[in-house]
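If your schedule permits, I should be very grateful for your opinion on a structural question. I have a record of one protein: its chain in single-letter code and its fold written as discrete structure tokens. Would you kindly read the sequence against the tokens and tell me how you understand this chain to fold? Thank you for your consideration; the sequence and its tokens are set out here.


***
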Amino acid sequence: MAPDIRKVVEAELSRPVDPRVADMAAAIAARYGEASRAVLFYGSCLRQRELGGLMLDFYLIVSDYREAYGRGWLAFANRLIPPNVFPFEHQGLVAKYAVLSEADLERECGLKARSVSVWARFAQPSRLVWARDEGARARTVAAIAAAAPTLFALTRPTMAEDRDDPLAVFRAGFALTYGAELRAERRERSGSIVDADRDYYARIGAAVMAGPPLPASSPQSVARAWRGRRRKGKALTLVRLAKASTTFAGGIDYLAWKINRHAGTDIEVKPWQRRWPFLGALILLPRLLRRGAIR
């Protein structure tokens, strides 16, 4: 019997995590009261046993932005350009968390996504570390289960060969998504993601390919669509960066740290850039593009 993608994804999301991760997720959810629906843990820290000195990555899924924030700028910004991103500290650990509504998570994991970032993220390993109730858990699992099929549907028509090799599809898909955003990571990073957990991608890929037929598109139309995603994605990265300067305390320091870590640069943030992070980021960006630190 062919594996069901939703069951495979649910099993992956349910795998245990360090208790400190679960505690932090619960603390994040507590900030937003009844609006909190689920918390997902993802990123490089998911593979780490020692979490000290690292920045953990979470997605907080909420019922509605107005319920989460009330009226005002944060609800408007999260609805207009999701997600909002915030820093968080708990019991000696540091993290950042992005906020998405349940409706936006469902859209952004599927073929109607406005950008590649969410479905590309959740085609990779993640853990559902907190949920309001079984209804919230089931809805989150269903949304995440659409991410890998979306990657396959948008990637396989671009491939001249190895279209039936799940690992090759994931490598090609991540390469495409990296090209559709401004990224600090090296070009080979998209392939190393797959190599770091080949068993996971083999399981997920087999479930996708054994499932219902994916929407068919011509290579020409898919190529046009990817050109549009690249243009839109790079512009959207800049807009999100600008927005983050209003929601993320120390955001420009985090940006510099991440670029230095992934691109091998030695960027130093000046005091005036911390005082005016939006302006500092805008001035910093052209230098990084010229030096090839982000692409």
The first strand starts at residue 36 and ends at 42.
